[in-house]
Structure formats: C-alpha cells, structure tokens
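Translate structure to sequence.
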C-alpha cells in the first residue's frame, strides 16, 4: 500500500520545509490596512472654506482658564498663528481671525457619519482618533482594481464632503496611520511586505506613543523610526516602558492589532434600484419621491423624526454622490422633506448615470404625534419659523443662519459666538 503524500512529508527527516497542509485562508492573504486622516476636520465640518482664500479660522480650547488655539487653517498659519498660542495673541496677529470653540462631541459625531460612509469600501471601519479612520481592506482591492484605485476613490469620496484628506495603505494599521499622518506625500501605497521603506524616515512620534516618550527618544538622538529599529528590543522596555515596544511590534506586524469596527446606531433606510441607469432628472425626481414616501412611512411607524439625513446616488463606475440635509428640529413631514430634497437636488451635479438611490438617516429622534389645541397659533408660528430656518440654511449654507450665544472671554466684544440654528 502506498503511503499518503501528507504522511510521507511529515515523516521525512531530510525535508527542511515544515508541514503546511493545515493552512488557513489567512496564511495566503496578505493583510492590508488603509488609514484616512482628515487633519482639518474640526474646522472643515464647521466651514466650507479651509483654503487660504477662505479667511483665517481657529479652533479654541480652554486650558487652565486661558483660551488657546488648538487648531488653525492654512490661512491663519500663513499669518503666524500656531497651536498653543493664546487667542489674544492670535487676534493681535490677525484681527480678522474667526474663532470657534472646540466641540469634541460634534467632531466625533461627524466622524461617525464618515465612518458609516466609508463602509462602502470595507465592512471594518475603525475610529482611531479625533481625525483618523482605519479600514481593514484585506481582499477589498480586488473590487476596486487595486490598492491605488481603492485609496483614491475613498479619498475622493471624503473630498466631496469638503474635507482635506491624507491617506495610506500598508501592511499594518500602525504603519498606515504613521504614513498617512507624517509622510511627505499625502497619498502613499506601500508594496506588500515593504512597509519599512516608507517608515524609516518618519519621526518616532508617528508610533502613536505619548509626548513624554517621544521627547525622551529625541534627547538620546533617536528621532526616526529607522534609527529606533536598529536598537535592541530588550533594552527598549527597560528604558522607555512597555508601551514603546508594544507600538513598535504592532507597527512591524510582530504583534496583531485587531480593529474594533464602528457599528452605527439603529437607523432608517429606504432605497430603490432603477430599472436602467439614467441621467434624466425627471425620472430621478420620481424615484426620489418613491424613496421618500417609503422613508416617511417608516418614520411614522417608529413614531420618530430626523434632523439629519443623507440622499445617495449610486453610479455604475463612479463613486457614489451623497447629499446631506439638516433641519433645525426633528421632522417626518413628507411635504416638508420633499420640498427640501427637491431644492437641494436642483444644485446637485451628477457625474454620470444613476442606477440606484438611497435615503438614510444615521440617527432618529422621538417625535410624538402631538394633539393640536383649539388655538394653536404658537405651534403654527413655531413650525413656520423652523421651516423658514431650514429653507434659509439650505439656500445660504448650514453655517450661515445663526444665533448669538454667550462664551467666556475677557474682552466683552468677543464674549459670544455664532451658533447655527
């Protein structure tokens, strides 16, 4: 009786190769991660103008009772304004500087919306920090004709949202994050297994370590990741703590780094696939009406309303076109939502034929069917005012219709900020 090949291989003392018959699929698939960094997200989510010609803008943070600049746009930077500068000093350099209070909760909320949007490129989207998303794109490049196309389409989708984006695809989440944030190029795709080529010249701070450890490394002459990799690993933990060695091992793939995917809260979705792709606006408008009717009926059944919802147009060979609408208060009125959608649709530029439409609300809010009183003038006036605010915001921009709210400032003329209605 002949010996099965597997048994012969396992018994052969001359064979130096290990027995590889029990391989899993992951042994054949090279892990790949994509990081998308939006360095000016706190500013750009508030203003549609972050370019130098958009005027100087800064985000202020209160530190020990003093307002300091946490982030500024390019226009402010060119005027000499920098993070950690006091707001008073910044205003002295630029009297026209617009200052917005830091809103971490609002930034995170917007980042979660972007994380949901990026699920079109990978089912695993992880929120790494205030301005970065990391996606597990292992195997996803086949759907986008390669890593380069995958990265460019993801970046283009975020650029359409009015954001400045840096991106990278590498073998590990740590490498992708480091390259996306600190590499000289704004878009980088490393060759599989060749991350160290792009990592060696990056600063040690790109290891996601604390400032104290990064400063200690610079004091002893270790300023780049390439220099750090030549040091013996055993001495790193004793001199600089376990966190440094841990981050370095994650960066190089010696330690796994599982990504925690973002799961959006319960939402309402209505979608329709057209019988054939078309660019005719009248047909697309009718499809929007059908999607909206189904959307509003779902809201009615759940006794809920929405203040923010997204209308997405899917194309055959292009990235989706997404339109975001917001209202000052929760609504589910078919007539009111239809008016807002059609007004916005008039200004939407579709790059090619539309094959499907989706209307999605990432978050719903309770909206009871209140019983009207005999004399409900106040209710009617409030509803009319809300509708007016929504129409003005749609026409002029979501940040143009504001009200004044008080903030702490030693200069009375600056002790307020404009809050969008």
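Result:
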């Amino acid at each position: 009786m002949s010996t099965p090949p597997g048994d012969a291989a396992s018994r052969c003392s001359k064979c130096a190769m290990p027995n590889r018959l029990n391989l899993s699929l992951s042994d054949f698939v090279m892990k790949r991660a994509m990081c998308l960094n939006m360095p000016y997200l706190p500013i750009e989510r508030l203003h549609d103008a972050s370019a130098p010609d958009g005027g100087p803008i800064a985000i202020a943070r209160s530190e020990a009772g003093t307002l300091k600049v946490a982030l500024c746009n390019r226009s402010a930077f060119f005027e000499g304004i920098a993070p950690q500068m006091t707001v008073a000093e910044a205003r002295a350099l630029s009297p026209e500087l617009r200052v917005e209070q830091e809103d971490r909760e609002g930034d995170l909320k917007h980042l979660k919306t972007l994380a949901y949007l990026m699920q079109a490129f990978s089912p695993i989207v992880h929120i790494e920090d205030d301005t970065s998303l990391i996606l597990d794109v292992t195997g996803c490049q086949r759907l986008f004709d390669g890593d380069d196309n995958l990265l460019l389409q993801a970046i283009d989708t975020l650029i359409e949202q009015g954001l400045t984006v840096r991106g990278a695809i590498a073998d590990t989440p740590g490498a992708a994050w480091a390259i996306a944030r600190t590499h000289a190029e704004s878009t980088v795709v490393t060759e599989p297994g060749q991350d160290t080529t792009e990592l060696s010249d990056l600063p040690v701070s790109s290891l996601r370590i604390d400032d104290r450890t990064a400063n200690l490394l610079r004091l002893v002459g270790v300023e780049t990741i390439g220099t750090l990799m030549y040091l013996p690993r055993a001495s790193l933990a004793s001199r600089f703590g376990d966190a440094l060695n841990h981050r370095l091992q994650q960066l190089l793939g010696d330690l796994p780094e599982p990504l925690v995917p973002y799961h959006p809260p319960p939402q309402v979705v209505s979608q329709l696939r057209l019988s054939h792709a078309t660019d005719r606006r009248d047909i697309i408008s009718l499809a929007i009406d059908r999607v909206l009717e189904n959307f509003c009926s779902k809201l009615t059944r759940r006794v809920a309303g929405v203040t923010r919802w997204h209308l997405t147009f899917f194309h055959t060979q292009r990235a989706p076109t997404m339109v975001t609408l917001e209202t000052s208060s929760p609504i589910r009125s078919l007539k009111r939502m239809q008016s807002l959608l059609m007004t916005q649709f008039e200004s939407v530029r579709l790059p090619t034929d539309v094959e499907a439409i989706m209307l999605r609300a990432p978050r719903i809010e309770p909206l009871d069917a209140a019983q009207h009183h005999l004399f409900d003038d106040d209710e009617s006036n409030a509803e009319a005012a809300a509708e007016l605010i929504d129409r003005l915001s749609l026409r002029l921009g979501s940040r143009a219709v504001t009200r004044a709210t008080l903030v702490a400032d030693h200069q009375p003329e600056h002790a307020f900020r404009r809050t969008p209605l």
